[in-house]
From TrEMBL:
[4Fe-4S] cluster 2 binds at C51, C54, C59, C70. Its cofactor is [4Fe-4S] cluster. This is Carbon monoxide dehydrogenase. Its EC number is 1.2.7.4. [4Fe-4S] cluster 1 binds at C42, C50. [Ni-4Fe-4S] cluster binds at H259, C295, C333, C451, C481, C522. The lineage of its organism: Bacteria, Bacillati, Bacillota, Clostridia, Eubacteriales. One of its GO terms (molecular function) is hydroxylamine reductase activity.
Length: 630
């Protein structure tokens, strides 16, 4: 095919420049302006050696002042700051997972929220020894939801989902003492350990980092994924589109942004109500267009095919188009700048969660009991806003790419085993994939995840790394903003097989999949842990031996640090394109790269140059192959 049909980063950047120019008249400011004002960034912060944990400080470590007032050295300070990031990330993912448990607990037969995937609910009930015989499906849903909530605060025992791991991993986690207990307890322990006057030993801080991360990946995030599938359906492959060109000039445009899909689902449903569609038409619009940003986009695209307007650093650009009637947000990754920016335009900015209150927004607190009506009301308000557009401020984007999304583990198994009904057969295995890897037709797999970060050229690292992996016959699975970078570039199309080496290309053609599989939002990295686990089980080896690695080329959030910790604990090497803020401690740098590898079989490989980073991944995968003798 014509390789010009892929969107390049240069084209994306040109579009951003055009939008910024268009909007300059209204005095709008975006992250590019603020990044300049923040440069150079504070060296102490960057190196992780500024401590403001107590009010004797802040203390900063320099060659002349190697210890804080209390005597904490660079290792203690960088280690504590690092663990606090993990606690923050685990809290965010896991609280999102808990919120979804509450939503599941609110389901009723005729309620606003219902159970969509009964089979998955029954499988989970069975896994958790919850009796189902002769019980109403909603009684089971409530019991499962409650059991899920208990994982956050139970006084004894470790996370239930750990049983899903390989026997080797479970034993190792117990031996190392990193099997997570109650999710909230691991977060509290991390906060307590890092309080003034507690742990100053970097190794102990790193170990609690692994355990806290595990409470996220094998606790709160997995909870989020499982409960969301039960509530809104387990994703199956779907066709959609990505990039700002999905915004429609002639339609009422509503953007859903954030992470928790409970609110956005109601808006998606309301946008299909006939009376609201008629109302939109009566106002001169051709229809109602819902588009997503960040992980909320991933959630609704995986289940409804809702189109993706873009990823993290594109959120302001969406408003610069001047054709967004409303942007509704739930939690996480929402720029406070959307407040003043929306005021430059007619755009209504709606916050919906007590977790994310932002000046310049209208606050509409979402509740399960009233969600349906609230969703309709917001859509109605967006329609009323359609004729308030300022023609002088309109700058319509046109670029978009087709994308295929929806690759849950269930979907991947179905594709591999050629099953066409929705029932996942016990006999389905990853054997066909394993055989391809053993034969060398596919060399291995890389999970590319995470955010955008202005410290590197946004989307460039994602896209260049993905292309190079495909050319080297390495299959890519992706979530989060990385997945949207792939969508914008056109890499989630089946035609992207033309970028692959001969082996991967043939597999894509035979199985009928794109070479990059969109597995969902960032909590769905839990799907990737299960994928790696089940591949290891079907192969009969432990996870660190499988030629699979993880990569976050442009990460920025605390959640990403929590993720990196459970991925490493699971035995998967993690390649980072942004340096963790611990450089001021030689011991911390050693612990997170080589130290953990001695314990869990995996560690970080850090390089800010995407070309060097991708080559390291290819070498890493080839080394794992060589060790297996394949
Ligand atoms: Fe946020 Fe999940 Fe990062 Fe994107 S990838 S910027 S965390 S939306 Ni998780
Ligand atoms: Fe300074 Fe120690 Fe207080 Fe940190 S905990 S601010 S290093 S005195």
């Amino acid at each position: 095919m014509d390789l010009n049909n892929f969107t390049t980063v240069e084209q994306m950047e040109a579009e951003t420049a055009r939008l910024r120019e268009c909007a300059a008249c209204s005095g709008a400011e975006t992250w590019e302006d603020r990044k300049k004002a923040q440069t150079p960034s504070c060296k102490f912060g960057e190196d992780g050696v500024c401590c403001r944990i107590c009010s004797m400080g802040p203390c900063r470590i320099t060659p002349k002042a190697p210890r804080g007032i209390c005597g904490a050295d660079a290792n203690a300070i960088a280690g504590r700051n690092y663990l606090r990031m993990i606690a923050g990330g685990t809290a965010a993912h896991s609280d999102h997972g808990r919120e979804i448990c509450h939503t599941l607990h609110s389901t009723k037969k005729d309620g606003h929220y219902q159970v969509k995937d009964e089979a998955k609910l029954l499988r989970l009930a069975k896994e958790w020894d919850i009796p189902t015989e002769g019980k109403d499906i909603y009684d089971i849903a409530h019991e499962v939801a409650l059991a899920g909530m208990m994982e956050y605060g139970k006084p004894f025992g470790t996370q239930r989902f750990l049983n899903r791991a390989t026997d080797e991993r479970q034993k190792l986690w117990n031996d190392l003492g990193i099997a997570p207990r109650a999710i909230d307890r691991e977060i509290a322990t991390a906060m307590h350990m890092t309080h003034m006057g507690n742990t100053a030993d970097a190794e102990a801080l790193v170990m609690q980092g692994l355990r806290t991360g595990m409470a996220d990946g094998w606790g709160g995030s997995m909870m989020g994924t499982e409960m969301t599938d039960i509530l809104f359906g387990t994703p199956m492959p779907k066709d959609t589109e990505g990039d700002l060109g999905v915004l429609e000039k002639d339609m009422v445009n509503i953007i859903v942004h954030g992470h928790d899909p409970a609110m956005s689902e109601m808006i998606v449903v309301a946008a299909e109500d006939k009376d609201l569609l008629d109302y939109a038409r009566s106002k001169g619009a051709k229809g109602i267009n819902i588009a997503g940003l960040c992980c909320t986009a991933n959630e609704v695209t995986m289940r409804h095919g809702v189109r993706m307007a873009g990823n993290f650093l594109q959120q302001e650009n969406a408003l610069l188009t001047g054709i967004v009637e409303m942007i509704t947000v739930d939690v996480q990754c929402i720029f406070p700048s959307l407040g003043p920016l929306s005021e430059c335009f007619h755009t209504k900015f709606i916050t919906t969660s007590p977790i994310a209150r932002i000046p310049g927004s209208t606050y509409v607190e979402f509740h399960p009991e009233t969600a349906r009506e609230q969703g309709r009301d917001l859509v109605r308000q967006a329609i009323d806003n359609f004729d308030k557009r300022d023609p002088a401020k309109i700058c319509v984007p046109t670029r978009k790419q087709p994308a295929r999304v929806g690759y849950s583990c269930e979907a991947i198994l179905k594709e591999l085993n050629g099953v066409t009904n929705s029932h996942v057969d016990e006999r389905d295995t990853y054997k066909p994939l394993i055989d391809c890897i053993k034969a060398g037709v596919i060399r291995g797999a890389v999970a590319i995840v995470g955010c955008n970060n202005p410290k590197v050229r946004p989307d460039h690292s994602h896209i260049e790394i993905m292309k190079k992996l495909l050319a080297n016959d390495i299959i890519v699975i992706t979530t989060g903003c990385a997945a949207q970078a792939a969508a914008k570039a056109g890499l989630l199309r089946k035609e992207a097989k033309d970028l692959c080496g001969a082996g991967m290309k043939r597999v894509c053609e035979l199985v009928g999949i794109p070479p990059i599989l969109h597995m969902g939002s960032c909590v769905d990295i839990s799907r990737m842990m299960l994928l790696a686990t089940d591949i290891a089980k079907d192969w009969g080896i432990d996870i660190p031996q499988v030629p699979v690695v993880g990569c976050a080329p442009e990460w920025m959030s605390e959640k990403a640090v929590a993720i990196a910790n459970y991925v490493v604990s699971t035995g998967i090497d993690t390649y980072l394109g942004i340096e963790p803020q611990v450089k001021g401690s030689v011991q911390m740098m050693e612990l997170i790269t080589e130290g953990t590898r001695k314990l869990t079989g995996a560690g970080y490989i850090i390089n800010t140059n995407p070309d060097t980073l991708v080559q390291a991944m290819i070498d890493g995968i080839e080394a794992k192959r060589a060790a297996l003798g394949i």
